[in-house]
Design brief:
single chain; globular; Rossmann fold; Dihydrodipicolinate Reductase, domain 2; 30% helix; six-stranded parallel beta sheet; seven-stranded mixed beta sheet
Length: 345
């Protein structure tokens, strides 16, 4: 059994992580933490975990001893906190999977520019945690910077076309809509039921922090500078992301080449379901699962390709992806604890 701990277990992503780890036959929970609920049982805060996970929440102040007692630590904290924990654990053999943004960027200057926080662990041995693209690097990584939710949906949608140079990398536009759980469990006026219900809105236009994360991965795949327009939207549902990605086709690129690129890159991937050309992925059909459903359309009139990508933001966009990365790093089959049927209806 591999001993794992969850730092920040009381957020939505942390609770989802506990649910997935509960059914993992080769992982055992050693410690779970919360600064705001130290001393309470997690099942007091999340009654759906009653009888499944009744562990008592500890304080992060004992992070070094938690690290000594763990093989892997999942950190499900807001940005700016994981790097402090990572620095304190640097000399220990424990491996870290950060669900936040602190270890997602190869260039910490980009992180500092977009997140407005000084990076205190610049020399950390880290890799980007998007399993389908960085699987080989994840296997031996000390720190895995779990990919973000909007970024997972968007990068997976665009990766085959960028990798095979089928689209103009300077023409990419991403419109993505997320359920409100992506904003976290904290109370905010914009997420208050009367504000959210029967509403649909954009936010952080041209300034969302997932923008450079998407650009970083696409540049890495395509080998050329990539600048995108990314606009996030909030929809009145609890979970799910639908990303609609647009790009100009390069000269002489046809529909069959687009089909072939997706098939070549993802044809054998467990958690990417290729619905094919002219298909319409829906969040309903991936809810509660680690799947990413992809469909694409060719607009001959504008010479653009439109890719639709649907994921569950708390699973493939957070906790499920973290466990997928854990499975790779620990040497387990990638689908352990994740091979579940989406919840429907």
């Amino acid at each position: 059994m591999v001993k794992v701990s969850v730092i920040g277990a009381t957020g939505y992503a942390g609770a989802e992580l506990l649910s997935i780890l509960h059914r993992h036959p080769q992982a055992t929970l050693a410690h779970i933490t919360s600064e705001s609920h130290t001393g309470k049982k997690i099942s007091e805060l999340y009654p759906h975990l009653r009888g499944l996970c009744d562990m008592t929440l500890e304080s992060l102040s004992d992070i070094v001893n938690i690290g000594k007692d763990s093989d892997f630590i999942f950190i499900a904290l807001p940005h700016g906190h994981a790097m402090d924990a990572g620095l304190k654990l640097d000399a220990l053999p424990v491996r870290i999977i950060d669900l936040g943004a602190d270890y997602r960027f190869a260039d910490t200057a980009v992180y500092e520019e977009w997140y407005k926080v000084p990076h205190i662990h610049k020399d950390a041995d880290r890799v980007y945690g998007l399993a389908e693209i960085y699987r080989a690097q994840i296997r031996d990584a000390k720190i895995i910077g779990n990919a973000g939710c909007f970024t997972t949906a968007s990068i997976l949608a665009l990766a085959p076309l960028v990798k095979h140079h089928l689209i103009d990398a300077g023409s990419i536009i991403v419109d993505a809509a997320s359920g409100v759980s992506g904003a976290g469990r904290g109370l905010k006026l914009g997420n208050h039921f009367p504000e959210l219900y029967d509403n649909f809105k954009a936010y952080n236009v041209a300034h969302h922090r997932h923008t450079p994360e998407i650009e970083q991965a696409l540049e890495d795949l395509g080998g050329e500078k990539t600048v995108i327009n990314f606009t996030p939207h909030l929809v009145p549902m609890s979970r799910g992301i639908l990303a609609t990605c647009y790009a100009k086709l390069n000269e002489n690129v046809g529909a069959d080449m687009i089909d072939a690129a997706f098939q070549k890159m993802y044809g054998s991937e467990k958690f990417i379901r290729l619905l094919g050309r002219d298909a319409y992925p829906e969040t309903k059909f991936v809810r509660g699962s680690n799947y990413c459903d992809l469909g694409w359309h060719i607009d001959d009139r504008t010479r653009r390709v439109i890719i639709l990508s649907a994921i569950d933001n708390l699973v493939k966009g957070a906790a499920g992806q973290a466990v997928q990365n854990f499975n790779i790093a620990a040497g387990f089959h990638e689908s352990v604890a994740l091979d579940v049927v989406p919840i429907y209806p």
